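A protein record in our archive is deliberately plain, so that people and models can read it alike. The record that follows is passed on verbatim for readers who wish to inspect the format.
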Amino acid sequence: MGGCTNCKGKAGCDDHKGQMMGTVEQALADLYPTRTWGEAADAETAEPAGLPPDELAGLADELATELRAATFVRAGGDDEACDYIYVLALGRTPCIVQVRDHGVELPDEWRSADAIEELYLRVVISHRARVAAVQQVAIDLARTGDGYLVRERPRAGVYDAPLLARLQKLVAILPAYDLVHLDFGDIAHAPPGFHAGEWRVLYGADPSIANYLFYAQPTTMITTTMISADASPGVLAS
């Protein structure tokens, strides 16, 4: 989440964070014997540690029921060692994610709206270790001359108060799928003693722990997609 609050559960929170970071440290040691980003051990041949498709779909369905929200699975791209579940927190279906990722027909309301903004909890599930993390993501749509411009804007954690109750329920479900929840605020920094490798060439800085476990792109990088009024969507720029 976005940071600790002043509560009476500090001891329990400290224990949780200690166990969580122990899991992270062990995963990094097992996955990166050279301690260098981009040099994951047996990255091409190792058996994936993430959820198989049926369990991923089952988790999405359970989240939809328990959180009373629409959920959508998106498989990670070729350069992403993860899968995603989007939980629609603010907005209504058919939503932007359905049109962008799942081929749903453009809603009629898009044709009369200049802009739409939706809010999601984005669950990211690693292929490399049995870990998951959650980000708050805003997705907005704006009309252009020949279609619609979509921006996905992730934050390094979950910050808005209306999302926190759902986040707590979501986190409580993950252990049933043998997934350890990692607080995003604790994995958004570079791991001590590790080397950036090619990441520094690509992005000009040091990769965070999240980049070692989940995906290559910076954790708060904005992605931009163009959806044509009469064609399939496609990513234009980041």
Q: What stands out?
A: The chain has one domain: 10-237. The chain has six helices and eight strands. The longest strand covers residues 131-144.
